[in-house]
């Protein structure tokens, strides 16, 4: 039995390797001379990734109105560097399709993740966060550690879920996980992200999305995903009561210059945009 977040993540990487195309894109983007055409040539041979990027570029999230018909143009719309993060997210959903679990519907899991991804992007716009497009993938992958734990340790994961319902009203699963495992899904997700060689900014946003001020280096992306996670839960529940969601550190709202009431006005838009994206990531 694995005794650490790193061991759990390592077991999953042995079950399913991350698609090489994501790493090739990552390597190309380290070269400032790489063009959209060159990156498109790497993506085009992968039908699933190509189709997903085209559908994403044509979604309401980017507001183009269905006029993007080729991968190169899709990369330009999404953003040359941000396409790396989106490719990692699309590849992650594909990777986990082959890793079973009995504790959660995969569709429900990715639905929440997509709500968080869309919320993170919109919060980034509201807060004028630099490089906001990469926030989408940070939100998409924030709970990836749950899938690892459900697959590797279903009994202990079930125990943590039940304990959360009994003791924490179901909104602080990560606290129950820490009691049962000694670590939580955020730590597992970050460990997996590091093994997958995802960018440091994504790893940090995953690791500290429940406890942003525990990070040694606090960034806007960590704060955004922290807030977005709670907004995603409210979107799922169709609620305007912040008490129904994981608590938001008020310092995060202040640091980002956000208003709680204004964020609630985004719920309907988040649900609509995410609804279109569910067909891209969950099929």
Radius of gyration: 18 Å
Q: Return the CATH topology of the largest domain.
A: Hypothetical protein af1432
Number of strands: 0
Shape category: globular
Q: Nutshell version of this structure?
A:
The protein is an all-alpha fold and 283 residues long. The protein contains 17 helices and no strands. The protein folds into two domains: 17-97, no CATH class; 99-283, Hypothetical protein af1432 (Orthogonal Bundle).
Provide the descriptors you would attach to this structure in a database record:
283 residues, mainly alpha, Hypothetical protein af1432, 17 helices, 66% helix, globular
Give the arrangement of secondary structure elements.
Elements: H1 5-15, H2 20-29, H3 36-43, H4 47-57, H5 71-78, H6 82-96, H7 106-126, H8 135-140, H9 144-152, H10 154-168, H11 173-181, H12 185-195, H13 200-207, H14 220-237, H15 250-256, H16 260-264, H17 267-281
Helix pairs in contact: 1-9, 1-12, 2-6, 3-5, 4-5, 7-14, 7-17, 9-10, 9-12, 10-11, 12-13, 13-14, 14-15, 14-17
Task: Explain what you see.
- With 283 residues, the protein is mostly helical.
- The two termini are 32 Å apart.
- The model has no long low-confidence stretch (mean pLDDT 86).
- The protein is built from 17 helices and no strands.
- Helix 13 crosses helix 14 (220-237).
- 66% of the residues lie in helices and 0% in strands.
- The chain folds into 2 domains: 17-97, no CATH class; 99-283, Hypothetical protein af1432 (Orthogonal Bundle), CATH 1.10.3210.10.
């Amino acid at each position: 039995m694995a005794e650490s977040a790193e061991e759990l993540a390592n077991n999953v990487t042995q079950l399913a390797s991350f698609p090489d195309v994501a790493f090739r894109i990552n390597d190309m983007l380290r070269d400032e001379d790489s063009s959209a055409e060159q990156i498109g040539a790497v993506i085009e041979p992968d039908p699933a990734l190509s189709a997903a990027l085209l559908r994403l570029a044509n979604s309401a999230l980017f507001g183009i109105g269905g006029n993007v018909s080729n991968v190169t143009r899709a990369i330009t719309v999404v953003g040359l560097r941000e396409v790396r993060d989106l490719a990692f997210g699309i590849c992650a959903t594909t990777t986990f399709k082959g890793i079973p679990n009995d504790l959660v519907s995969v569709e429900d899991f990715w639905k929440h993740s997509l709500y968080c991804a869309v919320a993170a992007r919109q919060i980034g716009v509201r807060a004028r966060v630099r490089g906001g497009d990469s926030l989408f993938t940070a939100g998409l992958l924030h709970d990836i550690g749950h899938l690892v734990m459900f697959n590797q340790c279903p009994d202990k994961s079930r125990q943590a879920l039940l304990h959360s319902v009994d003791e924490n009203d179901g909104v602080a699963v990560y606290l129950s996980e820490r009691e049962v495992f000694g670590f939580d899904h955020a730590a597992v997700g970050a460990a997996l992200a590091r093994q997958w060689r995802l960018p440091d900014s994504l790893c940090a946003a995953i690791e500290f999305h429940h406890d942003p001020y525990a990070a040694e280096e606090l960034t806007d992306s960590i704060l955004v995903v922290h807030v977005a996670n709670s907004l995603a839960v409210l979107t799922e529940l169709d609620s305007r009561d912040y008490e129904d969601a994981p608590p938001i550190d008020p310092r995060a709202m202040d640091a980002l210059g956000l208003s709680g009431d204004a964020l609630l006005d985004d719920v309907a838009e988040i649900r609509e945009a995410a609804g279109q994206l569910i067909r891209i990531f969950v099929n």
